Amino acid sequence: MSFFSKQFIDVIQWTESGDGTLAYRYPMEDMEIQTGGKLTVRDSQMAVFVNEGRIADVFVPGLYTLSTNTLPILTYLMNWDKAFKSPFKSDVYYFSTRLQIDRKWGTATPITIRDKEFGAVRIRAYGIYSYRISDPRVFYEKVSGTRAVYGVNDLDGQLRNTIVGRMTTAFAASTLDFLDMAANQSRMAEMMQAELAPVFSALGLTLDSFVVENVSLPDELQKMLDQKISMNMLGDMGRYTQFQAAQSLPIAAANEGGVAGMGVGLGAGLAMGQQMANAMSSTTQAPAAPAAAKAAAALGDTKFCMNCGHSIARAAKFCPECGGAQQQP
């Protein structure tokens, strides 16, 4: 009796043993489903009956008594005209419909896009996304198939490469410049989610969320951008240099024992001496011109000294400046 009891299944149910399982085939080898058996589908699950390779009935969460009423498609495929009373053979697949969260995506190598300001640039990006199975029929036919267990790790590579492949198309159609992307990452995420939604739907999945965490340039291009930003911040290099020199004077002068302090002190002394000399020259030479003019006017007509070139009266026999004798006219 123990041998026969193991051949018939009265209760079909599945509880996930851990994270990461998308599809699970209930073990049916050398077993048949008992008439009136129970099928349990828990929340965040869906169950599919597959008869001879063809999908029959799909069950949402609930408790079901297996009969011709609850298995209408299978009843049609098995040609049951009335309530069946004998065990039957069928494959039962469970699908996890809960969110698969914190799935990571990123560009393995930089992708090239056209930017209005910089021209053609290469960018890197990464982030996370979440999805769930929404159509187990499509997922069974196109993805999981007859495998006993199908997990998220089996699908990650396909989804990640699809995301990166679609990024180039999405960015090419975007009007955002690279410098604006960092400030509009949420907008980029919305654009990418709209671009990827049909791709996920074609696999029986729903893309629930898509997040862009970072967009950056490769290291060599980032250094060039940093230099350009620094130049823009400095503005007029001449004025910046003057400002830096003025700022350094008090610091250098405070270091009286250092070479810098000596240089600053010497430079300040020379500048002050030059200003004093210019002031004295202007004060001493300014009255001379009017005095010479008055003397020349008093002597009447003038001539120039033959020795020193000083202006003297035409009738003078000796130069008052150098004492040289002069020829008489």
Write structural notes for this entry:
The protein is α+β, with helices and mostly antiparallel strands and 329 residues long. The chain folds into 3 domains: 7-96, no CATH class; 100-222, Tetrahydropterin Synthase, Chain A, CATH 3.30.479; 288-329, no CATH class. Helix content is 41%, strand content 28%. It contains 9 helices and 14 strands. It has helices at 2-5, 72-77, 136-144, 152-172, 178-181, 185-201, 219-234, 237-254, 259-299, and strands at 8-12, 21-25, 32-41, 45-51, 54-59, 62-65, 91-96, 100-106, 111-115, 119-133, 149-151, 205-216, 302-304, 311-313. Strands 5-4-7-2-11 form a 5-stranded antiparallel sheet. The longest helix has 41 residues, at 259-299.
Percent of residues in β-strands: 25-35%
Task: Report Rg.
Answer: 48 Å
What can be said about the biggest beta sheet? 5 strands, antiparallel
Helix percentage: 40-55%
- Which strands sit side by side, in order, in the main sheet? 5-4-7-2-11
Which spans of ≥5 residues are poorly predicted at pLDDT below 50?
A: none
> What distance lies between the first and last C-alpha atoms, to the nearest angstrom?
162 Å
Count the E strands. 14
What's the mean pLDDT score? Answer: 78
